[in-house]
Every structure is written in C-alpha cells, then in structure tokens.
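Subject: design request, 488 residues
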C-alpha cells in the first residue's frame, strides 16, 4: 500500500466521495492532511472542500449533513462561516464550499464568495498547504497540485501560491505562519527554508503586523515555542523586522557594543541558544515540553539592555538585570494580552531567580544559601535548575564543562539539604493568628517582623524546622526586641 492509499484508507473518505457523487458535487481532501501524508506525519484533522455548480449555497454544509446521516454521526454547523464539522471513528472532518477571497487593506477578514477548487487553492497560504486529493470515483486519490506543492515539499521550501506581497498584505498573519511552518517542519535531515522573495516581502510588509490582534500573534508565537527549532523562528522574525513590531524588548538584545576595545556577549543569540538548550534538556530528562518554561527562557535576559553599564577597568556589567527583567514580564504579558495569572507569575519568578543557582556555582555552597533558594523557588525549583543549566553557554568548551561540573555539585548539595530539611514546600510554623493570640496583639507590623525572624532563623540553620523550636525562638525574640511577654 502506498503512502497516499494508506492515508485515504479510512472509510470516511469513500463515504464522502460516494455521497458527493449522489449530490452532484465534487469533494477533495485539502491542506494539512495532504501535506502530512507525504511527510509521513499522523494527522487526525481533515479538511474537505466541496466544489459545486454556480449558485449552490452552503454545499459544504449540505454534504456534511448527508454524510452524517449515513454514518449516524453528529454534525456541528456554523452557517456564518459556511462550514460544518463531524467526528467519525476518532477523526474530525470539516467541510466547506470552495471559495475565493478578497480583502480590504485595513482588515485581515476576507470577503468570501463561492469559487472553483483552483480559486480555493489559490487563496491558501502556502503551496505545500494547497495540495488536494480527489475523492471522486473516477480518479480517487489523484493529487491536484496546480502550484507545485509536492515539489516544494520535497525541496523543503515555504512559498506562497500568489505573489508574496499580495499574500502578506491581505493577511499579515501568514508571515508568522510561514516562519512557524519553517520551524515546525524542519528536521536535521530535511530543513525547510522560506524563499528569498517571501523574506524580502516580509521586510517590506512588517508594518502590516499592526492590524493583527495580539491574541492571534501570541497564538503563533506559542506554536513556534513548541516546535523543535524555536530559535530558528525568532531569528527569522528578527532578520525580517517582524519581531520589533510586537516584542521590541527582545529585539533590543541584538548586537554588541564596544568601548575601549571591549565588547559584551551578543545577548540575542545567547537567548536563542538558551531556548534551544531548554528543549534539549527537556527531551533528555523525558519531560513534556513546557510552554511557560520556554517563555521564561525567551525572556530571562530581557532586562540586560536597560541594566547594561560599562565600567572602566572592569568591562561590561548587567548588574540587577534579573530584577529589571522580572519587573518587565507583567508589562510584556499585558501588552501582548497574555494571561496575567499564575502562568505569568511563574515566568516572572524564573526570570527573577535565574542567576541564583549560577551564583552558588561561583561561591562556596552553604546550607543556608541552598535553603533560601529552595524556599524562594518552591515547587518550581526543578524548572529553575533546568533553565539555569541551559543558561550555561560559552564558545569555550572547557569553561562550559567546568561550570556544568560545578552545577552538578550544587544539585547534589540541594538534594542533600532537601532530604534533610524538606524545605522545598516550607511553610512558616508560626502563623499571624497564633502571634496575635499569644501576645494579645491586633494586626500590626510586629507580627510580620516576628514571622520573618523565624523564617530567617530556620533558613539560616539557627533552629530546626519544628514548631517547638520556632515557638521558643519567637517568644525569645518578642521579649528581646519588642518587650512582649506571652500570655500563656
């Protein structure tokens, strides 16, 4: 059985073809399912385009309803969009009538009219997504490929059916989709590239990104961050000028400034290397890819352009860039209309703490320093350590090897401290209610100060992590510092 025959072996395809013949229309599988057939990639989302006689309304919906009646499936109809969807034997099949589109310059929403199959293929974003399989009895499984999509797929080329300036002007989101497909489809054995004329068009049309909603942009960014080669995607976005249209904070990492013959690390390429390292370490540890950890890697050095200083005799410093970057994270998320919930706080925390394990590598590792790191990172400590390990980059292999050996020593020390103290999910044994009841206090700063003293004593190893030790310490400090006597 050939690859095409295997992909069209599902009974739904014969059923659709037969039903289309009965209704006097023509049906074709189109888009991603066809592309993935030739790539050998599983795909359970099937798009059916229906070509009908002129004047026939909602041909896609009519065919979907007829197929659903035969296979006793439930069909969902979306009349405003002229589409219908049904689920059959574990796959989703979406039906739409063949159509052509035109656009107003200030909107990416098309004006849709009925059209032919070729007109429908012409409106598709890329040649590799415009291929179709016939479901007609007389030429079942025949490839309909008027723009050479199969050739471009074999060559690893992302190309638009229309002139790229028209394609990207009509719908600027397609510029991000081109980049995302290049990153998603690329493998070491078969890399994909965007044709030069498309890249030039992106540079010219970058300003058209402003008509897009932030939600659609972020949807594409999230998909890029979950590909095998997200660094490739962000490099292309930077080179074409797209990145500065929605994430200029990241673009500002690009470049090296030199003073007195001394330059600093090129922070944009470093950031992309860290991002790729995170994906590599996730795979090595058997982890599922974590989108928000990828965002943390992307933004971990975002504060460097603001914090950058040249100190004569010392060179370049980025002192406090982790604090500056952490403050920038909520603003970036808000601007891009991303969630401002625990996901944002997670990214902010990792950006804020990403230097802490590295500092432990450079200094003598004390139990106190490890306790404080475990306490501040909490349940996200494993993700933080993976990010920090990924952040070890250098053109000097010996330096990287030395830092990684030291980093492993820190991890070992952390495991020892955590096994002994169980500090990762530490909670202060002294509560505010207990302090108020014990000393007859109303809410005041003294309560927080006493709790902070107990916390620091535990983390510094002055007292064991038990209620009895914390209570005795707190009573002594209350009397010594505030002159308070316990009422019981």
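Subject: RE: design request

Done. Sequence follows.
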């Amino acid at each position: 059985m050939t690859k095409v025959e295997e992909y069209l072996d599902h009974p739904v395809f014969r059923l659709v073809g037969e039903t289309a013949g009965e209704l006097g229309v023509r049906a074709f599988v189109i888009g991603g399912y066809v592309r993935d057939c030739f790539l050998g990639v599983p795909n359970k989302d099937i798009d059916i385009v229906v070509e009908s006689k002129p004047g026939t309304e909602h041909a896609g919906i009519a065919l979907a309803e007829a197929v659903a009646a035969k296979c006793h499936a439930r069909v969902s109809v979306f009349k405003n969009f002229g589409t219908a969807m049904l689920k059959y034997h574990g796959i989703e099949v979406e039906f739409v009538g063949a159509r052509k589109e035109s656009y107003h310059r200030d909107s990416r929403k098309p004006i849709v009219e009925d059209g032919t199959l070729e007109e429908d293929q012409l409106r598709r974003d890329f040649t590799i997504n415009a291929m179709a399989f016939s479901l007609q009895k007389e030429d079942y499984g025949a490839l309909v490929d008027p723009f050479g999509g199969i050739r471009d797929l074999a060559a690893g080329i992302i190309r638009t059916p229309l002139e790229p300036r028209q394609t990207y002007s009509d719908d600027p989101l397609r510029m991000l989709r081109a980049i995302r497909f290049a990153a998603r489809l690329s493998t070491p054995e078969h890399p994909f590239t965007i044709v030069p004329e498309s890249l030039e068009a992106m540079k010219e049309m970058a300003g058209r990104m402003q008509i897009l909603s932030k939600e659609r942009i972020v949807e594409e960014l999230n998909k890029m961050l979950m590909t095998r080669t997200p660094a490739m995607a962000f490099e292309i976005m930077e080179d074409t000028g797209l990145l500065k249209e929605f994430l200029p904070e990241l673009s500002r990492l690009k470049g090296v400034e030199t003073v007195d013959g001394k330059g600093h690390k090129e922070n944009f390429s470093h950031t992309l290397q860290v991002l790729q390292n995170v994906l590599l370490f996730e795979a090595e540890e058997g982890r599922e890819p974590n989108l928000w950890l990828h965002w943390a890697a992307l933004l971990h050095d975002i504060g460097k352009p603001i914090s950058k200083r040249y100190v004569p005799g010392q060179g370049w410093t980025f002192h406090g860039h982790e604090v500056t970057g952490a403050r920038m994270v909520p603003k970036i998320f808000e601007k891009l209309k991303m969630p401002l919930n625990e996901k944002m706080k997670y990214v902010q925390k990792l950006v804020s703490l990403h230097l802490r394990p590295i500092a432990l590598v450079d200094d003598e590792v004390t139990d106190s320093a490890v306790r404080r790191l475990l306490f501040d990172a909490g349940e996200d400590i494993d993700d933080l350590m993976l990010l920090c390990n990924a952040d070890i980059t250098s053109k000097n292999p010996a330096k990287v090897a030395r830092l990684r050996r030291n980093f492993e020593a820190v991890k070992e020390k952390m495991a020892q401290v955590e096994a002994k103290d169980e500090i990762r999910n530490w909670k202060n044994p002294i509560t505010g209610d207990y302090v108020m009841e014990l000393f007859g206090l109303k809410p005041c700063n003294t309560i927080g100060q006493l709790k902070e003293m107990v916390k620091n004593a535990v983390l510094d190893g002055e007292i064991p992590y038990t209620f009895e030790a914390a209570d005795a310490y707190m009573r002594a400090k209350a009397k010594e510092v505030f002159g308070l006597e316990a009422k019981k």
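Residues 458 and 464 are 6 Å apart (CA to CA).
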